[in-house]
Amino acid sequence: MNFQLLKDTVSLIFADDKGLLAMDESNGTCNKRFEKLGIPQTVESRRAYRELIVTTPGLGESIGGAILFDETIRQQKSDGTPFVKVLIEAGITPGIKVDTGAKELAGHPGEKVTEGLDGLRDRLQEYFQMGARFAKWRAVIAIGEGLPSSGCIEANAHALARYAALCQEAGLVPVVEPEVIMDGEHTLEQCREVTDKVLRTVFSELFAQRVSVEGMVLKPNMVLPGMSSGSQPTLDQVADATVSCFLRSVPAAVPAIAFLSGGQPAESASARLNAMNARFKSRLPWALAFSFARAIQQPALEIWNGHQANVAAAQKALYHRARCNQAARRGEYSQEMETK
Ligand code: 5MM
Fold first, then answer.
1. Domains contained in the chain, number
2. Active-site pick, 177, 193, 197, 281
3. pLDDT in tens, the chain (340 residues)
4. Cα–Cα distance between 168 and 162 in angstroms, integer?
5. If we measure between CA atoms, which residue out of 318, 327, 328, 329 comes closest to residue 295?
6. Strands 112-114 and 102-104
7. Domain that holds residue 148
8. Is residue 219 annotated as a catalytic residue, yes or no?
9. How far apart are CA 30 and CA 211, in angstroms?
10. How far apart are CA 202 and CA 148, in angstroms?
11. CA dihedral in degrees (304, 307, 308, 309; nearest 10)?
12. Ligand 1 centroid – CA 139 distance (Å)
C-alpha cells in the first residue's frame, strides 16, 4: 500500500476548504432526474450535462474532487477532450463510484445490501490507470418499524470494509458512504441512535479488514429527523446532534468527513454544514466538508433543462452552490450569499 499517496490525495482534495462534487449518478438515477424535467434520457444528454459540469469556469476554486460514474469517466467533451483531463487541468481530482448498487437483502424485507465486490480488484486497477485517485461505495440503511436490523448493518459494514481495503491496496482513497436515509417519520434522536450504531459497526469492520483510517474519507448523512416526521429542527439542534454523534463514533485519526446531502434543500445543507463548522471547527479532530450531489447540482440542472442556450446560467448556479459550501466549511456562509 502506498500510504503516502493516500494521505497526499486526501490533503489535495480538501485543501483550501474545498469539498467533493458527487456526479456519480448511475444511468437509472440520472435518467429519473432528467425525466422529471422533461430532458431526453439519452447517452448524449447525459454526456452534455456532464460536460456542462466539468467545464464550469472556476469550479476548481471550491471543488477538490469529482466523483464520476463508469459511463462518465470514459466520456469526452464535444471537442474530444476526455473529462478526466478537463478535471485534472481544472485542479479537480477525479474519483469513481465502484459499487454496483443496493439490492434487496435476502431474508430482510425492506432492507438492502450494496453489491460490487466481485472483480473489484481488477476494476480498481483500470480506474487508477485512467486517472482516478479515489473511489466511492454507498451503503443504504433505512429507519422504520423494526429497522434497521443488525443483519443489514453488519452485511453493509463488512462490504464497505472489504471495498475500502481493496481501494487502499490499489492506491485509491476509499470514500466510505454508509447513508442512513431520510425517508420516514423517525425523530432526530432515532436518527442519531441509528447513525451511531452504523458508524461504530462500520469502523469495527474497517479495523478488522486492516483499513488504514488515516487514508480514507467518511461520507455520512447528517443527523436529521425523517422527511415525513413534520419536525423542523434548528440549525443548532442539527449541528449538536451530528457533531456529538460523530465525536462518539468516528476515530480522531480519520482526516475528513464529507457529508452527503440526502435530499435536503441545497440552502439547508449549506446552512447546516456552516453551523457545525462555525460552532465546533476549532475543537474537532477531522475536517468537516461536503460531498453533495443534489445540493450542488439540482439548481443548475433545473436551469439547464436540456438546452444549450442555458449552459452559462446553469454553470453560474453550480459555481455559486460550490462556493456557498466552501464558505460553510469555513463557518462563513450566510443567507446573504444567496441573495447577493
Ligand atoms: C449521485 O448519487 C449517488 C448515488 O447514485 P446511484 O443511486 O444512482 O448509484 C449517491 O451515492 C451520492 O453520491 C450520494 O448519496 C450523495 O448524493 P446526495 O444527493 O445525497 O448529496
1. 1
2. 177
3. 899 999 999 999 999 999 999 999 999 999 999 999 999 999 999 999 999 999 999 999 999 999 999 999 999 999 999 999 999 999 999 999 999 999 999 999 999 999 999 999 999 999 999 999 999 999 999 999 999 999 999 999 999 999 999 999 999 999 999 999 999 999 999 999 999 999 999 999 999 999 999 999 999 999 999 999 999 999 999 999 999 999 999 999 999 999 999 999 999 999 999 999 999 999 999 999 999 999 999 999 999 999 999 999 999 999 999 999 999 999 999 999 999 7
4. 10
5. 318
6. antiparallel
7. 3-339
8. yes
9. 32
10. 14
11. -80
12. 10
Q: Which residue out of 20, 27, 29 has the highest number of ligand 1 atoms within 8 Å of its CB and is therefore the one to mutate?
A: 29
How far is 38 from 31, CA to CA, in rounded Å? 10
User: pTM for the whole thing?
Assistant: 0.98
What is the CATH classification number for the domain harbouring 114? Answer: 3.20.20.70
**Residues whose CB falls within 8 Å of the CB of residue 121, separated by 6 or more in sequence, listed in order:** 166, 169, 170
Residues belonging to the chain: 340
Is the separation of the CB atoms in 75 and 83 below 8 Å?
yes
Cα of 138 to ligand 1 centre, how many Å?
A: 8
Spacing, Cα 263 to ligand 1 middle (Å): 10
d(CA 253, CA 244): 17
